Amino acid sequence: MEAQIQETDSSSTQVKLPEIQVLNISGRVKPPHGTPRIRGKKKKAPVSPEAPRVTPSSFPAILSRILLKSNEPPENAPKLNPSDSSPRLCFLCLEKPATRKRAYHMFTSAENTLGRDYTRTQKLYENRKDYKHVNNITVDTPCARALYRRVQKEFTDMVWNKQGNVFETDMEGHTDVWNVSNRVYDLRKKELERLINFIKFLSATKS
Fold first, then answer.
1. 131 and 125 in contact (C-beta within 8 Å)?
2. If both were cysteines, with which of 79, 96, 149, 196 could 101 make a disulfide (CB 3.0 to 4.6 Å apart)?
3. What span, in angstroms and rounded, lies between the C-alpha atoms of 119 and 164?
């Protein structure tokens, strides 16, 4: 009887042994048991693009994207030089006495190339006896290319050449030169306000 009782007790009682945890040295995470294996190369996780770093050489390009509202540079854009500083929008002022007209040749420049750019532009008219160089207008601006485009867009009352870099006005003493200069400075002010408002927007939205 005792042997029968002992045999019954040993068959109904199961002793659970504690699970031994193995230290994971490799760092690999094993999938749960029964997970189907996927053949082929594993796809890499998408890498989020980093925000552009602002440096003295990258700032003009970033500023152009803000003011020009485009990632593509304009046609015939001047090459960016990290050593350039203080962009300028320039006008070579010319007179045409025979027709009582004034012509304004517009181009972009920088502080360290200003003299050379004026000399190069003035040489274009050395053999043109109908033109007479009388004055220059130089405007310091955060983005010369943006202001260049704004002048083209706003000066619709002027007669422009096909290239869009020279326009003419009627000669009215010296007042038309000052009028052109004042209008360009007004546009420069609007460009600065536009940039400041954009910076305020980024600050308010914490972008």
1. yes
2. 96
3. 20
